[in-house]
Amino acid sequence: MSARLAAVAASTPAHLAAAAAAGGLAAVLLARLRFAAAPQCEECAPPDADDVDGWLALAHRERLARRLTPSQSFFRVLAIVVYEVENELRHVVGHNDEACCLLNSCCGERAAFLQLAGRAGVSVKACYITTDAPYPVTSGALCREYMLSQSWLTTPEMPVVTEGGDGRRYTRTLAELYPHASPYTRLDSAEQLAFGKVAAPAARAAMERAAGTPAGVAWRAATEAAERLAAAGDALHPLSFGAAAVLADGRVVAAAQRKALEYGCSQDAVCQLLALIDDRGSAPAVVAHCDQFALCHAPFAPARALLVEGGFGDAVVLCHAGKGDGAPEEVKAEALLPALPLIPKLGGASSP
Known about the structure:
5-stranded mixed β-sheet, 352 residues, 36% helix, Cytidine Deaminase, domain 2, 3 domains, 10 helices, 18% strand, alpha+beta
């Protein structure tokens, strides 16, 4: 037996080790894969589709089995995504992990969903989450937005169930966790562009009617910032976004997104705006986040988190939500991120 084969066999359950001698390295690797995929005991067998207790118990076991914690927070999050494909129930497991740059980190939910990327015929039934906190910690803004964006995998009614170490649970649908979603949320880039072009005339007419009001001022300033970015031209994405705020002292500030070749390195327009707001030293009264077609979008996930966690939950934000035409809704920023997951270990308060 070769040294490589011996090493593999040494880490293989005894009743499979014989496969190494009989069939070589390929045989033992195949045997290990089959062993890993098969239930090893009744307790470890995958639960039934509607067995919430069973899925959460499995999520706790998987999380506790992880020995190396994330390098920055030392806080483990485990997500199990249960899905159906070809009339067969399956699941994937995702762990959170982190980099030295905090924004280059990945949550457990996205780690699980990424394993389903590009797969056709998949229907996600539920997402189950456990963490190292004693109480249930809800998904963060990025995960909520990402899961809702997966139109070929999820529905807005998909349940997200989280359980704390003390047994308390929190269950909400994706739509409940991520309200006032952009009308572009479940569209691909070509569909977004087509939607914007169709909705633009009604949106622009409504913007003209709102001229002179705080909402109208912010709306126009954000749209103009997006138009300037779009006019500059780029091949990265057909949509451009601008953001503007009317501050409590009456001043107006505006900013535009910054796109990068690797999408995750892009800077959100509202996040860019927040730096200007901090510099002015006055809280935002009205915030508009618009594309080049004058459609108002509630801030995307990173900005939602920063607005709410940063103490600007009382700011009014404009959003066309699912309509994309006429006058936008006006909602408080705090309504964009219900059941905010705040963790005492990381400096916050408790989750619901």
